[in-house]
Amino acid sequence: MAGKKIFISVEEAQKSIFRAVKSSKAIEVKIENASGFVVSETLKSEYPSPPFNQSAMDGYAFRFSDLTPTPLKIVGEAKAGTNFPNKVGKGEAVRIFTGAAVPSGADTVVMQEKTIATKFELEITDSLIKKGSNIRLEGSQIKKGTIAIVKGTLLNPGSVGYLAALGIAKVNVFRKPKIAIIVTGDELVAPGTKLKPGQIFESNSHTLRSVISSNQNIQPELFFVNDSFETIRKVFKKTTARFDFVLFTGGISVGDYDFVGSVLNAEKVKTIFYKVKQKPGKPLYFGSKGVKYVFGLPGNPASVLTCYHEFVKLAIQKFYHHPYPGHLSLSLPLSNPIVKKPGLVNFLKGFTDFKTVTPLSGQESYILKSFVTANCFIVLKEGDGEKKVGEEVEVHLL
Fold it and tell me: Residues 6 or more apart from 165 whose CB is under 8 A from it?
């Protein structure tokens, strides 16, 4: 990795990623598949919502001016999905159900629990009712032709339902990246295999695929390679032709069997940075080949997950125009003290109840067990030393 920049700071690494990654272009998706995407155009509603004056509950529709004297004459019923054919006249009421169109002439709905009704007559017992009660007015959510969602909005389940309620079946969004994960290491075997001397179970692919799927709703494709220059190079060529991001796990250091760096050099990948002033995950690589992006992640499992949350996620989100790329950061007091050597940013696995934050045991880069209960990182700056109970620290939510 000739010309590589050694020991870049965490902040500079994150800024370099944000500058390097080019954002994607728009595609069309069905509304049922749109959650988690970012809208690529401002959308206007073709219909008012509600599309008519709509009853908010089961009850009776009537003219407020006829509230007294009662009883009123019941002249029919209005069900959801139908249109009452007649106009409600003086002294008349119509049985109505939630979601039904309020009949012409009526301007108020009384809930059925506040009435006394026979087959043909209605007495209203609600002394607090007002004109217009229990009616959702046409266009009260949105009027026809007005903006429903602006460009750059991240669609969530509520906004997907909102667009569907406006009759929108398809939406233009920014494309999410295609991601390949290349796992290196001759010592790795699949879970469920009987271990031989010197072997360990491979977990990084499961960790990465799970976190990318759950965080970004993207399904990465997995590739497993031997510690061989030619094998790694062949798979790398294949993946860069098909995928936007290639994530290596392991093989990025300088050992005799760490061939990833040599492959990246041979394939003329532009090194943006290599090694970050952090713990865990110091041997982190990021580079580009045209508009394809390469991460060389450490082999240690906790380092892999840490580097995903702090760096890879930022790159993926920048690619599809996420409006808030990166992590959600808070400042919280410590429940336990921390002792740290100055020099590197430390990402400590922690648990927060959003009142305080607690550092967990098992901070070593090979230990995943603490991620079982961790819901945040405690972020200690390069120059930080001892942190006392009650002292405020930066917290990144997972």
Answer: 49
Topology alike, domains 26-48+141-174 and 54-136? no
Q: What is the CATH number of domain 54-136?
A: 2.170.190.11
CATH class of 26-48+141-174: alpha beta
Domain segments of the chain: what residues? 6-22+177-319, 26-48+141-174, 54-136, 329-397
CATH class of domain segment(s) 329-397: mainly beta
Q: Compute CA distances 289 → 225, 268, 368, whole Å.
A: 21, 7, 32
pLDDT of residue 2: 44
With vertex at residue 331, the alpha carbon angle to CA 326 and CA 337, rounded to the nearest 5 degrees, is: 115
Dihedral sign for Cα atoms in the order 372, 373, 376, 381: negative
From the list 286, 278, 281, 187, the residue with the least C-alpha distance to 246 is: 286
Give Cβ neighbours of residue 287 (< 8 Å, ≥ 6 apart): 1, 264, 269, 270, 271, 272, 293, 294, 296
For the chain, give me the number of helices (H) and strands (E)?
7, 27
Task: Give pLDDT tens digits for 174-188.
Answer: 999 999 999 998 899
pTM above 0.85, yes or no: yes
Segment (H or E) for 170 = strand 170-174
Report pLDDT for 3: 45
CATH 3.40.980.10 fits 6-22+177-319, yes or no: yes
